[in-house]
């Protein structure tokens, strides 16, 4: 099973302002691979911007404290943001968490078309996403 750093998600009440900041100050550019990939019918339709340095992505999402309630999930990835890793075997990664007694929320293909996403907390309460791109 391979795991790689994929993106950092930051939450804000002002996504356009954050996008302008990261574009101007750090010269990040829109991430073309995610054009049209967003799913907005599963409990979260707020603004999101996808930027990249050409290797690692930065996702800027509007803070939403009620996502967990609307989706019935324990972990809310849009409260404070999260760090995300990509795997080539989400089932094996879920088994790894279960073997270690780490609870997780399995969002399935919830926010991004074709991505099977799970979210869990590290020991300090930070949210971690692990996803598999089921399209490739």
From TrEMBL:
Gene3D superfamilies listed in its UniProt record: 2,3-Dihydroxybiphenyl 1,2-Dioxygenase, domain 1 (3.10.180.10)
InterPro entries xref list: Glyas_Bleomycin-R_OHBP_Dase, Glyas_Fos-R_dOase_dom, VOC_core
The VOC domain extends over: 4-133
Q: Which SUPFAM superfamilies match?
A: Glyoxalase/Bleomycin resistance protein/Dihydroxybiphenyl dioxygenase
Q: Which PROSITE patterns match?
A: VOC
Give the protein's recorded name: VOC family protein
Annotated source species: Paeniroseomonas aquatica
């Amino acid at each position: 099973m391979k795991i790689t750093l994929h993106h950092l998600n930051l939450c804000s009440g002002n996504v356009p302002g954050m996008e302008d900041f990261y574009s101007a100050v750090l010269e990040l550019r829109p991430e073309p691979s995610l054009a049209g990939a967003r799913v907005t019918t599963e409990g979260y339709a707020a603004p999101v911007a996808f930027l990249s340095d050409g290797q690692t992505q930065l996702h800027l999402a509007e803070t939403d404290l009620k996502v967990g309630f609307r989706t019935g999930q324990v972990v809310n990835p849009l409260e404070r943001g999260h760090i995300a890793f990509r795997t080539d075997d989400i089932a094996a990664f879920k088994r790894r968490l279960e073997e270690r007694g780490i609870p997780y929320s399995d969002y399935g293909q919830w926010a991004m078309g074709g991505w099977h996403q799970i979210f869990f907390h590290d020991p300090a309460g930070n949210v971690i996403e692990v996803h598999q791109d089921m399209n490739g």
